[in-house]
Amino acid sequence: MRLFTALTLYRLLLPLLFIAAFPGWLVKMLRRGGFGTGLGERVSIYQIPEGREPCGGVHVHAVSVGEALLALKLIREWLVAEPERRFVLATGTATGHAVATAAKLPGLRVTYSPLDFRWMVRRYLQRFEPSQIILIEGEVWPHLLLECRRGGIPVRLVNARMSPRSAARFKRFADWLRPIYQLLDAVAIQEPEDAGIWRELGVAPEKIHATGSLKFDPGSGALPKRRGEFQEIIDAVAPGRKVVLAASTHPGEDVLMATAIREAQPEALIVVVPRHAERRAEVRADLVNAGFSVCLRSRMEKPAEAAGSCPVLVIDSTGELADWTAHADAVIIGKSFLSTGGQNPCEAILAGKPLVLGPHMENFQPLVARLIAADACISLADASELPAAIHAVMDPLRARELTQRASALLDCHHGATRRILALLDPEIPVIF
């Protein structure tokens, strides 16, 4: 009865939510160049003839760029174990679609995931006939789960995470959500202490598996690496300088972090990587108005330096953050000062770079709490402390201490990718 009531409310609200969100979604697609990439697939309208689709493949659903990168990491390792396995990667955004397409994995079909209207989901499932569906991190949709259950298609959620804020909200509505989450066939959680919220949401204890984090697994996939073409860009903009990188910045943080870096290390090259590349014009204008000489990575021209100005390289591209991190001497994490939740600190840790975090890293607990407790990063109460923190992490001895402790904290996640694969495909052995 509760499932019927919850679904009725959902089916009434879904069209209204779609209508309300559509204008904003349209603007995002215009900014991110999504048109012309097969966006009709979001409503289950396809251009590829049905007979050419890889029916029976494993489907991985990943909404954002970050989730798409995790999906690619999982698929790459699966292909090593089973080269003949066919995959479909379904994304929810144009940027995620672009990243997945650019990977050019053999035999990978990149599509858009359907909106969660019943007829769209049914058409998607009838077209592809997936052998199983894997959801990355938290993308649970009622109609998708219901139609998969009716069709006998297992659905597994991997790298499952829930911020404390989300967990509190989900607990309030657990009675209504439980009938939906009970439809999951397995949930791979990042930390053992996360099991409680998933049990409360109705996932049976035997379906919950603590595998570690796909995102934090240092032993799988490609580690951040220095690229020759990146070093050429750095040398063209500001040769011979230390590099301080502001990672995944949100509005307002570009100037905030660049100003703090200039104060702490006036001779450093500032590298700003906005979370959304389509903000490039806004970021450039804000930095120029603040007295910086700016070079966009997409144009790769050396900026004209005004007297007393400080060079800033803006990385207005997608999917390159990890390897830009490898060129940095220190990394400041965005969305942690003027927004809430924080961005992923893992690339910096894997690259062996000292970390500076703002006060808002809620989405990456408990890892951040452990980093702070182990003195493996510098965590700030507010932005006024940023210049002193940057000065501190640029000290080689302090930087080495921080990076060694941070790397040690990722050891518990080593092998997580392989443990997840063993859950998804019992024929793949677990390697610890």
Describe this structure in words.
The protein is of the alpha/beta class. It has two domains: 2-15 and 27-220 and 415-424, Rossmann fold (3-Layer(aba) Sandwich), CATH 3.40.50; 228-411, Glycogen Phosphorylase B (Rossmann fold). The protein has 17 helices and 14 strands. Strands 3-2-1-4-5-6-7 form a seven-stranded parallel sheet, sandwiched between helices. A seven-stranded parallel sheet has the order 10-11-9-8-12-13-14. α10 (253-264) links the parallel β8 and β9. The longest helix is centred in the first third of the chain and has 31 residues, at 2-32. The radius of gyration is 22 Å and the shape is globular. The two termini are 44 Å apart. The model has no long low-confidence stretch (mean pLDDT 89).
